[in-house]
Predict the structure.
Amino acid sequence: MVIYFQFSNIHAFTISKIDLSTLKINIKIVSLLIIQLSIIFFSYQIISNHISENINSDNNNISSVPQGINQVNESKFRQIEQFSSAYHKKIYDSQNLFLMFLSLNLLSFAGITVGIMHFMKADTSKQLKTEKLAIVGTLAARINHDLRNPLSIIKNSNEILKIELENNENPKVQEILDRMERSILRMNHQIEDVLNFVRPSILEKNLYSLCMIIQDSIERLDIPDEIVIKLPTNDQKILCDNEKLEIVFVNMISNAIHALKNKGRIQIRIDDSKKDFVIVEIEDDGPGMDSVTKNQIFDPLFTTKSHGTGLGLPSCKSIIENHGGSISVSSELGVGTTFKIKLPKNHE
Amino acid sequence: MATQVIVVEDDNDSREILSEYLEMKEIKVVAKAQNGKEAVEMYTKFQPEVVLLDIVMPGYDGFYALERIREFDNNAKVIFVTAATNATTQERLFKSDVDGIVFKPYEMDELMKAISIVKNGGKSIPKSVRSIVHG
């Protein structure tokens, strides 16, 4: 029991190293603790019972030894001697058994502690990530308002300048104003990315042509001259929120352009061969991704770019899943990347 | 005759740039206000055709102003021009029975279109707010 309490102290110390106030009750951790307590309790019971049984049975033998020195003869003395040595042997065996169970307990304790630490670390990490995202949400709401106001002023000022300088002969002036307008759009897009991620996505669905949505998405982008986009040869109408899907395609095509470093080919295909759903594939012949990147690509705040929020693809995933669809990615280094978007047709 | 509007916006730069643009588009800005209380005072004094109303303002906000203006004139035409796009505000926007909503940063053409629709008795509500009905 003393040893058990010592173990508990070590355990408590280990737990206290991790901030208890941030942990919720975790069923896995509790289960492991219960298992360990049970192992210790039952093994203690087994050992105790074993020793008790041995002592009781030997006590019966002792009672059959005649009392009094006058009645002890040599054979009886030998019996006592043999009994004593057997008794000690049993004590010795019980001690060995106890040590064996103790070792097993130590091993199980070590294993369970490692398991608990692993779960706690994963839990803490998960909790920190959840808290981080919650903070992003709160910050997003605040920043949204504080950024959009000055952004609106810059945008409106830019529009006024364009009108005022419409007849200016210097082409550089218009070029600068156009550049400013694109930067404003980029900033607004970043804000939208964050908001699309933190806001619940309420869909307004109607029947829309996928090709129209894809075309509208391309028109929203500034496509570099050396990027070739091959559009689908077929079309499919689906029940969807066209504005939300536009956000998805704008993100996907924009990412492809970035991966291609503004030079290369993007192919968009529609597979409508299935009865209930349609698949849209967006393929680029860019550098591709390694498996580590591929596994994290839909994780919030993960990005391979030097700028950006890392919320674009998670927002896309969220929008697609809200439609009842799914998104996956396949990629090969040196070959390219294909995003596959599966959407229900949901025709009425 | 030029459309007469009141511009209600607490941010000085926002208020001035919007007023300047409207004047360029031959819309007469009859008054400017910096908060909800001033907005109500200006409305009762000038009774414009359209009110361009910010929401988040110190003291009395846009929702307060809309309520008081409607109490004075049930047919007042009001367009919220706002950067506040969080879910709570959107819910309040939908319930407020405002005539038009334009989110910042907006295209000037978008604002002009909203003014034209609302002035003629129509509604100009973005899909994200309308979809709260269907959500």
